[in-house]
Amino acid sequence: MASGKHAGFAAATAVELLDVADGAGGPASAGSVHRYRAEIHDGWDIGGNANGGYVLAIAGRAMAAAMGRPPLSVTGHYLAPSPPGACEVTVTTVRSGGRLGTCTASLVQDGRELIRVLGTFGTPVDNGHRYVAGEPPELPPYRECVARSEVAPTGEGMPVAGLMDRLAVRMHPDALSFVTGAPTGRAETSGWFAFAQEEPIDEIGLLLVADAMAPAVFNSGLPAGWVPTVELTVHVRARPAPGPLRCTFRTRFVAGGALEEDGEVWDSAGQLVAQSRQLALTPRH
Amino acid sequence: MASGKHAGFAAATAVELLDVADGAGGPASAGSVHRYRAEIHDGWDIGGNANGGYVLAIAGRAMAAAMGRPPLSVTGHYLAPSPPGACEVTVTTVRSGGRLGTCTASLVQDGRELIRVLGTFGTPVDNGHRYVAGEPPELPPYRECVARSEVAPTGEGMPVAGLMDRLAVRMHPDALSFVTGAPTGRAETSGWFAFAQEEPIDEIGLLLVADAMAPAVFNSGLPAGWVPTVELTVHVRARPAPGPLRCTFRTRFVAGGALEEDGEVWDSAGQLVAQSRQLALTPRH
Question: Which H/E stretch holds residue A236?
Answer without folding.
Answer: strand A229-236
